[in-house]
Amino acid sequence: MLGDSTAVGLGDPLPGGAWRGVGPLLADALGVDPAGYLNCSFTGARIACVRAEQLPAALAHRPDVALLVVGMNDTLRSDFTPHRLAADLDHVLTALARTGALVLPVRYHDHGRVFRLPGSLHRALRARIGDLNGAIDDVVSRHGVPCLDLDAVPGTYELSSWSVDRLHPSELGHRLLARGFSDLLGDAGYEVPSPVSLTCSGGAQVSALDHVGWLVAKGIPWLWRRGRDLVPHAAGIMLRSAADRRRCGPVQEEAPVTAH
């Protein structure tokens, strides 16, 4: 498993404080021995982090299958550069393919619909995600590997699929991701002895007080840090939109269409 905090398992806590998430859920479905499962991911990771810091350990492990969940953190940073992201992603897929691994990346949904961002920030993030998906699509097409489209995963835009921060999947969300990956593996000819259940079990019970504590201690500070990078981009979109409206003038109503 390579990637960011979703790959770490955030949103699916276990009793005792550890995280579970999509990787272990899928490993259980495949019947993978725990000793054969390696999670190289860490919170805050970007695609360049996967290439520089996570890939060497993954290559040494020589996996049969590698899940890659990364890219959303890149969309929130001021140095967002799609062609550089594509180059790093291409390097990761090429290196893992040389070891015989099947790499399963993801392409992203419109997360502004989940997080309920203000209009300009939502448009800015949606544009960034579109550019990120374009880079991912190009690399996936070049390598001919399956890709999990999060926009098409059932339940993606339902709040029950997300933890209280609306940034990370809930236990149900992680189960939906694991099932999506297992479907791709089944289509690729891999045996899935125990289909991923969508019934939540084994995770820690999270109280309303836990939710509020997370939001105050981590959620709001996180949004403040990331917003400082995204807000200038959003402001640029607003200014360009206003300039376009001035050039085009008032919108004319279309004449009604008359049937003949």
From TrEMBL:
CDD domains: SGNH_hydrolase_like_1
Keyword set includes Hydrolase: yes
Name listed for the protein in its UniProt record: SGNH/GDSL hydrolase family protein
Protein keywords: Hydrolase
Pfam family, one: Lipase_GDSL_2
GO molecular function: hydrolase activity
Keyword Hydrolase attached: yes
Limits of the SGNH hydrolase-type esterase domain: 2-176
PANTHER family: THIOESTERASE 1/PROTEASE 1/LYSOPHOSPHOLIPASE L1 (PTHR30383)
